[in-house]
């Protein structure tokens, strides 16, 4: 049975979604969705262990051999992405019972859990598959469920932001579709490994260049790389808290994985960074994104929006790492994908706790919360320190690798940009910390700490920030293995 | 015929794509944006269908005495994309409906103004 | 809604024919042109014609929203369940070969199950969309 786990990790949440639609009430769907997310986590852990032993796993869907059939192919890179998606989901779903219980209408809750399962299936499917067109299908499954989830927010602006995301996301996905179509026209295959084999022969044609352009722009829209990030701040701000935590921690990371997969595995490093000037383009956009988004984040009146802008800056770090085109840079990008999921998950969940108690996440509403809700705010601070990149947190590890990678190629400007952007992170995190701890609220009576049902999942992720910041064997080991395999210098 | 025009279907695809994309960007009415998005997607469907064309190929159904068939794979792929497009349109229209209920308008400029005031 | 005798009589003749044609397309799909998506939409169009002629309230009595919603989920489960059957029989996911006594009959029954599942889901989802939109716009 264990050979089938590679496909079951996608099928279980996919089939859980229609089952959830058939259920009534709020508790039963929640229990089923949580059970599914935990079993998915167990499978993801098993697959990571398998990949570390075997290097690569392949599964022929329907028994049709690759390259004719659809192949699911797992190596260290996508096993890591699956693990991060499963980890975040396994923590957010228990949290959703109380958080979404207050923020989402009861009759919409079975549908919300179904959409969450579809999102999970889509994201895991993108990372499971070895077929370029299959990526499009799963991309749209995850995107459509994300639009639905965002629209569940109580504020009516959730609707407009979901609509804007739908327009931009669909344009991005259609661009992706055009790119895949051109690749198919050029090579006659959709299997990623097969594409990688056949593309070098036709690499200098105009079709190949056009395909690459469409694919990169399409993926970057999903990735929210500056200047294609416009959908993100509103979408994250007005979605229900549990949804924001789930989407913010996973969706952009999976898009980053798709970008890595296409640039490194399918096009190959010589085409992406030699034949096309993608390295320079992505690097410039990443640096501008890091600086501009961090600067904008400082002045935001809403803490959720502040973190949303910070996410755009973090996407910049990831893109910077992968644009360096070296083993070290790619390791940094993969590490930061994983680590950013942990920190943003913890931060957005802490904000969700605040929203549950206070009813708002506006910065001026946070006054005095350090005393009233010490545990929630402590989790926020752990996440914040990690975001800044303080030693002993995961944020430090990935930024350290990123700086090493930049140093390796003598890019002093990049190091300066990373440091400046981190300093700006200090400013915006400190702004919240200061208001929460050193100012007293005049308008609000003392509030109490949130119940354990919210606190426990939040702290699990916060502790993961510390755990993976101290014990780095798993993350660095697998990121290094993945980077070497992707660049093709695997032993 | 002029060689550039021999592949006229691709020119049509490009023209449709631009019409769709321009509509999405330039129109303020959310329904018209969705219409533009549909035209844009349809252009891509045509692109895929054109890819499957084989000169003098028959419909891809096993028939005696026929050697050359059109490539059915792009058609199957695009069937999936059409279904995705239907789902996107349905979801988009549902959102427009709820925006209309919540704001009383579906014009982007007015929505923007109302959001800024809030 | 304006009531028209001609429309009602024509619809009563038309709807069975549409349904029959939809069923023909789904069962013919594995032999020739046709398939579950098209068939599903054709079947849904029967309900939509019904809705346009007799009004959404009457259609809701024939096909309640809760039933359609359930059917949409059941169709997906039928599709995915077919894959799980192949897993249980020791083959890869969605490998239909072991479902029948020979690979050929396995493929035949496997694809038929999947097509029926898709058809149910597409038909009920399309009808559901039309019904819900009609109701929402009216109020």
What's this, in brief?
Chain A has 491 residues and is mainly α.
Task: Report what the structure shows.
The complex is a heterotrimer of chains A (491), B (118) and C (139). In chain A, 77% of the residues lie in helices and 2% in strands. Chain A contains 20 helices and two strands. Chain A has a two-stranded antiparallel ribbon with strand order 1-2. Chain A is globular, with a radius of gyration of 21 Å. Chain A starts with a helix and ends with a helix. Helices cover 73% and strands 0% of the residues of chain B. Chain B has five helices and no strands. In chain B, helix 3 (30-51) runs antiparallel to helix 4. The longest helix of chain B is centred in the last third of the chain and has 31 residues, at 73-103. The mean pLDDT of chain B is 88. Chains in contact: A-B, A-C, B-C. Chains A and B meet through helix 5 and helix 6 of A and helix 3 and helix 4 of B.
Structural class of chain A: mainly alpha
Largest sheet of chain C: none
Helix coverage percent of residues of chain C?
over 70%
Low-confidence stretches of chain C: none
Q: What average pLDDT do the residues of chain A reach?
A: 90
By helix and strand content of chain C, what is the structural category? Answer: mainly alpha
Number of domains of chain C: 1
Enumerate how many helices of chain A there are, as a single number. Answer: 20
- Strands across the major sheet of chain A, in which order? 1-2
Shape estimate of chain C = elongated
Poorly predicted tracts of residues of chain A: none
User: In sequence order, what are the helices and strands of chain A, one letter per element?
Assistant: HHEEHHHHHHHHHHHHHHHHHH
The major pleated sheet of chain A works out as:
2 strands, antiparallel
Mean pLDDT of chain C: 87
The pair of chains with the biggest contact is: A-B, 25 and 29 residues
């Amino acid at each position: 049975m264990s050979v089938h786990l590679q496909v079951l990790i996608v099928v279980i949440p996919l089939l859980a979604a229609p089952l959830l639609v058939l259920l009534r009430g709020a508790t039963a769907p929640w229990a089923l969705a949580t059970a599914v997310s935990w079993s998915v986590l167990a499978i993801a852990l098993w697959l990571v262990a398998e990949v570390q032993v075997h290097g690569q796993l392949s599964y022929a869907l329907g028994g049709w051999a690759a390259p004719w059939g659809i192949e699911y192919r797992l190596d260290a890179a996508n096993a890591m992405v699956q693990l991060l998606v499963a980890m975040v989901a396994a923590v957010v779903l228990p949290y959703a019972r109380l958080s979404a219980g207050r923020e989402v209408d009861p009759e919409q809750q079975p549908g919300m859990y179904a959409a969450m399962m579809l999102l999970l299936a889509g994201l895991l499917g993108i990372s499971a598959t070895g077929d370029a067109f299959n990526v499009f299908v799963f991309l749209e499954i995850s995107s459509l469920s994300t639009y639905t989830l965002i629209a569940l927010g109580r504020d009516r602006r959730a609707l407009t932001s979901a609509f804007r995301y739908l327009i931009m996301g669909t344009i991005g996905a259609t661009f992706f579709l055009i790119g895949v179509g051109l690749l198919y026209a050029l090579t006659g295959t959709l299997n990623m490994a097969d594409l990688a084999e056949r593309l070098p022969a036709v690499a200098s044609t105009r079709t190949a260049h056009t395909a690459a352009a469409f694919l990169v722009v399409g993926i970057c829209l999903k990735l929210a790389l500056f200047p294609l990030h416009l959908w993100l701040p509103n979408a994250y701000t007005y979605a229900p808290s549990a949804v924001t935590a789930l989407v913010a921690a996973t969706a952009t990371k999976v898009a980053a994985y798709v970008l890595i997969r296409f640039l490194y595995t399918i096009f190959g490093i010589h085409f992406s960074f030699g034949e096309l000037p993608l390295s320079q383009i992505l690097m410039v956009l990443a640096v501008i994104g890091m600086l501009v988004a961090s600067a904008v984040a400082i002045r935001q009146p809403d803490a959720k929006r502040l973190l949303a802008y910070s996410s755009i800056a973090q996407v910049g770090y990831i893109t910077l790492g992968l644009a360096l085109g070296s083993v070290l840079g790619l390791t940094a990008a993969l590490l930061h994908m994983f680590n950013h999921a942990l920190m943003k998950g913890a931060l957005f969940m802490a904000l969700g706790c605040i929203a549950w108690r206070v009813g708002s996440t506006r910065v001026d509403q946070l006054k005095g919360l350090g005393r009233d809700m010490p545990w929630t705010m402590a989790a926020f601070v752990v996440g914040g320190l990690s975001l800044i990149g303080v030693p002993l947190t995961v944020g430090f590890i990935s930024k350290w690798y990123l700086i090493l990678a930049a140093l390796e190629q003598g890019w002093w400007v990049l190091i300066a940009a990373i440091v400046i952007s981190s300093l700006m992170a200090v400013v915006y995190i400190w702004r919240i910390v200061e208001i929460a701890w050193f100012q007293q609220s005049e308008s609000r009576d003392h509030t109490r700490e949130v119940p354990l049902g919210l606190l426990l999942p939040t702290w699990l992720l916060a502790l993961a920030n510390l755990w993976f910041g101290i014990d780095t064997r798993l993350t660095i080991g697998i990121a290094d293995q993945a980077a070497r395999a992707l660049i093709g210098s695997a032993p | 015929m002029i060689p550039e025009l021999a592949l006229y279907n691709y020119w049509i695809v490009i023209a449709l794509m631009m019409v769709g994309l321009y509509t999405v960007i330039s129109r303020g009415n959310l329904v018209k944006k969705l219409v533009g998005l549909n035209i844009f997607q349809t252009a891509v469907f045509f692109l895929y269908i054109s890819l499957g064309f084989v000169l003098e190929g028959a419909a891809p159904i096993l028939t005696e005495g026929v050697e050359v068939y059109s490539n059915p794979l792009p058609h199957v792929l695009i069937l999936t994309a059409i279904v995705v497009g239907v789902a996107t349109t349905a979801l988009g229209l549902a959102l427009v409906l709820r925006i209309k209920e919540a704001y009383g308008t579906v014009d982007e400029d007015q929505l923007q103004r109302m959001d800024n005031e809030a | 809604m304006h009531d028209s005798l001609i429309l009602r009589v024509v619809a009563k003749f038309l709807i069975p024919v549409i349904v029959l044609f939809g069923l023909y397309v789904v069962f013919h799909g594995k032999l020739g042109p046709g398939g579950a998506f098209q068939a599903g939409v054709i079947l849904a169009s029967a309900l939509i014609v019904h809705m346009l002629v007799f009004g959404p309230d009457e259609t809701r009595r024939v096909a309640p929203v809760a039933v359609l919603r359930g059917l949409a989920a059941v169709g997906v489960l039928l599709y995915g369940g077919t894959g799980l059957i192949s897993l249980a029989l020791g083959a890869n996911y969605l490998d239909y070969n072991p479902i029948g006594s020979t690979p050929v009959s396995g493929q035949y029954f496997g694809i038929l199950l999947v097509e029926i599942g898709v058809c149910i889901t597409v038909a009920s989802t399309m009808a559901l969309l039309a019904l819900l939109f009609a109701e929402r716009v009216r109020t």
